[in-house]
Amino acid sequence: MAEIRLDNVVKKFGNVIAINNVSFEIEDREFLVMLGPSGCGKTTTLRSIAGLEHPQEGDIFIGPRRVNTLAPADRDIAFVFQFYALYPHLSVQNNIAFPLKAAKVEPTEIKKRVINVAQMLRIEHILDRKPSVLSGGEMQRVAIGRSMVRRPKAFLMDEPMSNLDAKLRVDMRSELKSLQQQLGTTTVYVTHDQVEAMSMADRIAIMDKGQLQQIGKPTDVYNWPKNLFVAGFMGNPAMNLLPCCFESASQQLKIEHTNFAIKLTRNHLDLIRPSTSENLVFGIRPEHISLSTTSITSGLKAKVHLVEPLGSANIVDIVLGQVSADQFVLLRVRTHPSIVPKSGETVWIQIDPKKIHIFDRSTTLVLSETA
């Protein structure tokens, strides 16, 4: 097993900067998920760790060894691709055994390792089958088994579950997390799916436009986003982010294009006052807003725009104001499934002041954490 470290890594394709001065460290036995939208640089970063791409600047270490000039075969890592890349003419058993045969491992040791891996992945019954008759989940297990059998220092996985159906992905998430904990192998996992990231990772590294935006435990990046990108990317539905300005006279945040003002806690006020910016962004997650169909004291009165029933909850869009004839200022609220207001109905909302986030509009950085 090994630690992995990136120091000021830069990778360019022509004039396009795919990785822009990225630095972070992955601890031994850690499960790190690299998360971000398509084109953010996460796969290029993974391929650079593997040796499939070569950065123009910076250093990559696997354990104590700098690996910039090492060939992929000499880095002692295993790569699981998005497309399983199984040999169609070989049985499952021979697919799993292939890297050991290439390394000229003794046949008895190969057989022992293949059986051991097959038992861990619960695929003993398909060892004699060819890939053409396997399901998506079975092919995924075979691809993972082929990487496991080598007993590498680290696993690198590039969206390995993106081709599976929704139910199978849920099953594979828990299986893969359990397997990683059992093996204790350092794992770097790339995905654009935040549910995968939140449910599997020890830590999440969020990337955008080639830059590392934030790295931390799943609950930390969700509850304490450091900038507008992370706040808007994490969560489904995402955090409500509304342009606002701070009114010093009333000590409130005035939401633009609305008659609504948000009362702030003392902690928020202490953090806002040193700021030179008056143009701010107010952030609140949908689950941190209470909604009532009857009048409540200190509640904000508004109208319902749209309701999305999800079964376990309802997502209610509330109209706070209007920018133009066809553009509304909306606030999304997650409610209990028993609360089902109708479009156009008047409702009252309360915002938990301790869950408010405030961002500087010009720098996009957070001004105040939840207080």
Give structural notes.
- By secondary structure, this protein is of the alpha+beta class.
- The chain folds into two domains: 4-232, P-loop containing nucleotide triphosphate hydrolases (Rossmann fold); 243-368, OB fold (Dihydrolipoamide Acetyltransferase, E2P).
- It has nine helices and 21 strands.
- It has helices at residues 42-50, 92-102, 107-121, 136-148, 166-183, 194-200, 218-223, 228-233, 266-272, and strands at residues 4-13, 16-26, 31-35, 57-62, 65-66, 77-80, 154-158, 186-191, 203-208, 211-216, 240-247, 252-255, 261-263, 279-284, 289-292, 300-309, 314-324, 327-335, 346-351, 357-360, 366-368.
- The strands form four sheets. It has a six-stranded mixed β-sheet with strand order 6-7-8-3-9-10, sandwiched between helices.
- Strand 9 and strand 10 (211-216) form a beta hairpin.
- Helix 3 packs across helix 4 (136-148).
- The longest helix is centred in the middle third of the chain and has 18 residues, at 166-183.
- The radius of gyration is 25 Å and the shape is elongated.
- The two termini are 40 Å apart.
- The model has no long low-confidence stretch (mean pLDDT 90).
